[in-house]
Design goal:
Number of helices: 11
Shape: globular
Order of helices and strands: HHHHHHHHHHH
Structural class: mainly alpha
Radius of gyration: 19 Å
Number of strands: 0
Distance between the termini: 55 Å
Helix content: over 70%
Strand content: under 5%
């Protein structure tokens, strides 16, 4: 891995180095020393000074990116609402996932890899994190999505929402890893099919077996 740009503040260098290394290799396979080296830092106390701990650094990566992503998501949600499409599930999903789609081919793409590592790490619960009250844009998206599938029991909706998130983010991360120079038409097809799939997950009718299990567990 190339070192991060040296004209950045030390704190940002460490955040970007951690984001890329942890995103590429996983949370359990990167040492603090490697993060420091990638950030061009020789002083091992730099991480503790700025973040307190490795966990603090991971939280700082999210904090560094989430505000930017959420601001863009709110813009996209406002566009959906202005167009009178707040009951259009596919449009809602497009706005909710839009900020991540937009960074797939940018320098910020490593955040998506980082977030997916957190999503599939048993020590993290990313969906719970991103549904925090401060996430106004995503919170609005989730409420609109819920209104689009009113017949789903709450716990089934929660399971399906998580499955849609995991499927979508996992697919985008794989795209980043595999597609080094994607054709624009191919990427447009990929994104469109991604939204189709997320919508299908949420709209799929309950099978007789699933309905039976729900009835059994409710009694």
């Amino acid at each position: 891995m190339e070192n991060v740009k040296q004209d950045l503040p030390t704190r940002v260098k460490l955040i970007l180095a951690a984001e890329r290394l942890l995103g590429e290799r996983g949370f359990q396979h990167v040492s603090v020393k490697e993060i420091l080296a990638a950030a061009g830092q020789r002083n091992e106390s730099a991480l503790q000074y700025h973040f307190g701990s490795r966990a603090g650094l991971i939280g700082a990566v999210f904090a560094y990116r989430v505000d930017q992503i959420e601001a863009r998501r709110i813009e996209l949600m406002n566009e959906v609402e202005a167009a009178g499409r707040s009951d259009d599930l596919r449009a809602i999903l497009g706005a909710a996932l839009g900020p991540l789609v937009e960074i797939m081919d940018s320098e910020d793409k490593y955040y998506l890899l980082f977030a997916v590592q957190a999503l599939f790490d048993p020590k993290f619960d990313l969906p719970s994190f991103i549904e925090a009250p401060s996430m106004d844009g995503l919170g609005r998206a989730v409420s609109w999505i819920r209104a689009s599938v009113p017949d789903l029991p709450d716990h089934v909706f929660g399971m399906r929402l998580r499955l849609a998130i995991e499927t979508s983010m996992g697919a985008m991360a794989r795209w980043i890893r595999v597609e080094t120079a994607p054709d624009s038409k191919t990427q447009a097809l990929f994104v469109s099919n991604l939204l189709d799939t997320a919508e299908a997950i949420l709209r799929a009718p309950l099978s007789e077996e699933t309905a039976r299990i729900i009835k059994q567990t409710a009694s």
